Amino acid sequence: SSDNSHPMFVGIGAASLLVTVLPFVALCCYATIQQSKEVAEGRHFLTRSCGFLFGRWQPTCHYFGVLMLCRQLVLALCPIIADFLLPSVALEIFLMFLALLGWLVAVIRMTPWRANSANVADMIGTMCLLCFAVLNACVAERDPDQEPLLQTVAMVLLSLILIGVLIPALRSLRARLGGYQPRFLMFLCHHKGGGGALARWVQTLVSRKTKQPVFLDSDFLEDLEKIFDIVKSDSYAVVVLLTEQTLMRMWCAGEIATAHAHNILTIPLVACDAPPPDAAFYDQLGQAWSGGELAALEASGVSLARIRDAYENLLSLQASTFSVDGSRAQHESAVKNLLQRCSRKGTTDRPPPASFASPSKSGLAAVFPSFQSRQDGLETGGGVVLFGVGRYSEIGIVGRILQDGIEQRSQSSVTLVIGAEAWPAQPPLVLTTLISNDILTDPVFPTAIAKCLAASSPELVSVMASPNFPFPAPSFFDAVSDGEVFLRVDDSVVRSAASRVVRDPSVRRGSGPIPVIQQSGEADQQVCDADLGLAYKRVFRILALPFSPLASRDKIAVELREIARRVQVAMAKQE
Predict the structure, then answer these.
(1) How far apart are CA 437 and CA 289, in angstroms?
(2) How far apart are the C-alpha atoms of 306 and 261, rounded to whole Å?
(3) Which pLDDT score, from 0 to 100, does residue 518 have?
C-alpha cells in the first residue's frame, strides 16, 4: 500500500495468532485429553466447566470440539499457507476444499452432534461450501459473459445453506410452541433383566390399540448415547415400568431425570411389590454405579442431584398398576387406561383412571404393595396348553407373549398355565412346555407332565425360555427316579408350596408318592418318582425351539412363526 501499513498489520495478525489463537487451541486440546482421563477415573470437573467444548457433542465424540476449532483455523490460514507455498488462487481453493471435505466425511461417519437436526444442518452447510469452492475454482479466470450464470448458481447455493440452517431452527421453535408431534407415543423405561419381557408385552398390547409407535430399545436403538435425546425430543410420554431394580439401573435413572428436566409426561407403571425408595436408598445411589457410569451420565447433563429430584417427583406422581400375574383381560384393561393417560388430547396433569385410584393413600406409595396372585382364575383354551413354572413373575409374562404369538399365527386356542394347581378339565392335545431354570427344582413341573402323559398322549413341544439353561446330565434323571431330588411332605404342604422345592431336613426322602396337580372334577392322583424321571426324559428328548423375549421385534416374530408351525404340526398329528 502507499502508506506502507501492510507489514504492520501482518505483524499484528501474527502476534494475535501466537498470543491468543494458538494458545487457546492448545489449551482446548489439553482439556480434551484430560477429560478422557477424568471420565476413566470417574471424575467430571472438565465435563462441567468446559461445556462449550463438550456439551454439543455425543459423549463418544467429545473430541469434535477440538476438531471444529482446527477446521476453522485451517480455513482461516488457507490464504496464508497457499501464498507461502505457491502464490496461486487454485492452491488456496484446493486447501479449503480438502479441509471441508475431511470435516464432511467425519460428520457423515460419526454424526457427532447430540441433536440429529444439527448433524443434518452441518452436512448441508458443508456440502454447499464445497460447491462454492468448486465454483470459485471455475471463475479464477472468469469470463464476463458467464457472470449471470455464476451469480445464479451462487444464489442457489446460498439459499441451500440458509434452508439447511433454518429447517432445524424452525423445527425446534415448533416443538417449543407445541406444534411438533414426537415420533413415539411412549418411551418404555425398564430394567432389562427384571422387566424386559414385561416391556415387550406392554408394547405388544399398546400396538394393538394404536398406530403410534412405542419405543423399546431393543427395536429402535442403535446407539445408547442417543437414548436421552429420544426421551427429550422424540417421546410424548415416558412410561416407567417399576420393577425391583428399575431405579438402580443407570440408564433408567438418566431417562427419568431427562424426562423430568424437559417436562415430558411421566407415568409410573408399578409391576412389583417392592417398597418405595427411602433416605437410605438415596444415600447408596451414588455407590451403586461405577465412576465411569457416573461420568457418562454427567457427560449427558445428568447429575446425581437431578436424579434425586426426578425420583422424588416420580414418587409424587399418581401411579398405575400392572398386575404381572393377572389375566389377559386385566392386562388389556391396564393398557387401555395407560393409553387414556397418554392421550395427546389430554393434559399432563390429568388424574388417573378410577380403577387405579387408592381410597386411602396417594402417589406411588399407595400401589407399591399391591401384587395380585396368579391364581385369580384359569383361562380355558382348546387343545393346546402352554405350561411353565418359575419363582419369578417374568416367566408368566414370557408365557403371555408366547400364548399371544401362537394364537395369532396358528389360529389355535392356547391355555396358559404357570405354576397353577388347577388345569383345564379336558386333557391337552398339544403340551407346550417352557424350559426355564426353575423346572429342575420345582416338583410341580414333572408331576404335571407325568399326569398329562398318564391321562392322554399329548404331543410335546418344548420352548427354550432361558438362554442360559443348565441342561441336566443323565445322572439327574436317575436321581429323580430314585427319589433323591424331591422331598416328601403331606398333601397340604405340597400344595401351599407348589412353586418351590421344600427343603426341610426333617422330612424323609423317597417315601411314597408325590401328590400331583389336581384337575377340575377329579380326585387326587399320585405319581411315583419313576414317573417323574420319565417325564423329565420326555421333555428333554425333544429339541427345544429358541425364544428370546428380550430380542428385537423382528427376531421374536421369526421365532414365534417357527413355534406356531411346530404347534400346528403337532395338532395335525392328533387329528
Answers:
(1) 28
(2) 8
(3) 34
What beta strand segments (E) does 446-553 contain? 459-464, 514-515, 518-519, 526-527, 545-546
Over residues 64-122, the pLDDT tens digits come to: 999 999 998 988 888 888 777 777 777 787 788 888 888 988 998 888 887 777 888 88
Which residue type sits at 360?
S
CA 93 to CA 81: how far, in whole Å? 11
- Compute CA distances 430 → 20, 405, 426, 452, whole Å: 80, 16, 12, 10
* End-to-end Cα separation, the chain, in angstroms: 103
The 3-state secondary structure of 151-186, one letter per residue: HHHHHHHHHHHHHHHHHHHHHHHHHHHCCCCCCEEE
For 240, the grid coordinates are 416407567
Strand order from edge to edge, sheet including 414-418:
414-418, 384-388, 430-435, 459-464, 545-546
| Strand, coil or helix: 475 | helix
Could you read off the pLDDT of 224-236 as tens digits, one per residue?
Answer: 667 888 898 888 8
Cα Rg, the chain, nearest whole Å:
32
CB 383 within 8 A of CB 425: no
- Total count of residues recorded for the chain: 575
User: In the numeric block, which cell numbers belong to residue 185?
Assistant: 407415543
Three-state secondary structure call for residue 435: strand
Instruction: Look up residue 509 and give its three cell numbers.
Output: 426322602
String of DSSP letters for 272-314: S-PPPP-HHHHHHHTTSS-HHHHHHHHHTT--HHHHHHHHHHH
Dist. CA 514–CA 527, nearest whole Å: 6
Q: Residue 143: how many CB atoms within 10 A of its CB?
A: 9
